[in-house]
Amino acid sequence: MAPPSALSPQQDANGDSKPSTLAPHEPGLGESKAKIQMPNFPGPPSFADKYAERDYLKGRLAAAFRIFGKYGYDEGVAGHITLRDPVQPDTFWVNPFGLAFSLIRKEDLIQVDHDGNVIDGGKVRLLNAAAFMIHGAVHKARPDVMCAAHSHSIYGRAFCSLGRKLDMITQDSCSFHNDHVLYESFNGIVLAEKEGRDIAACLGDKKAALLQNHGLLTVGGTIEAAVFWFISLDKCCQAQLAADAAAGGRGHETVKIHDDDAAFTYKTIGTPKAGWFSAKPLFDVIEKECGADFLQ
User: Fold this and answer.
1) Whole-number Cα distances in Å, 264 to 32, 85, 98, 178, 289
2) Residue 80: pLDDT band with limits 50, 70, 90
3) Pairing, β 10-11 against β 17-18
4) Number of H helices, E strands in the chain
5) 165 by DSSP, 3-state: which?
6) Helix, coil or strand: residue 174
7) 174-224 residue pLDDT tens
8) What is the pTM (predicted TM-score) of this model?
């Protein structure tokens, strides 16, 4: 039963009745006081020394792989996350081909130039050609992208077989409102430079791509944002697969969020800073679980 404040009309200055503006779940609390503003998100650290920034970011990249391993995003040797090098921005750091995500340390990462040459890094200097073709093209086309993540997650690749974009059916999916694309092509493992460029062109200025018959690709101005967008996008795929199946089984369709509401929600949860902040608990937990192992 609703509290009295939600049912009882109020009197205006002229004595006329008008609908109550008291918060329905907090009797006696005025509407203006009930409107709590979201706090300002903190942001990533800044560095005056680019070499110190590189060292810090390589540690975060190693942590990102541990998170991907924890979530089961590794499938054999497939999958890669890249970091634009702050010292040499025309190069990037990536996982060596064949090393398990859950074992990657900072010292294992390899540095690759935009010609595909491994110029620095750990003892294992094998480069996944597909990683270079996709990520090299994305980093070249998008100077704003610090990190790009791609892997063959279960729900992501299942949803990518449908040849469609996400519906706005949950609050979380609104993070990708007008900010993801569908790459409608599959030509096998991406070993051709042209396909890498095509993927980058399709991505445009968005933060996520559904690679048809392949999997998910997310990007961000920080490692944390790219990682969180990937995890969130995979869960949105899972939610839509389940919701579509449940609705279809009853002969119905899912209820879509109105475009204006989705756009409004995006402004809170879909921004770069929101992506960075949302990933913070993931990185805090993995650091607690792994200790300093991945920082070696």
Assistant:
1) 19, 34, 42, 12, 36
2) very high
3) antiparallel
4) 9, 10
5) coil
6) helix
7) 999 999 999 998 877 766 788 899 999 999 999 999 999 999 999 999 999
8) 0.86
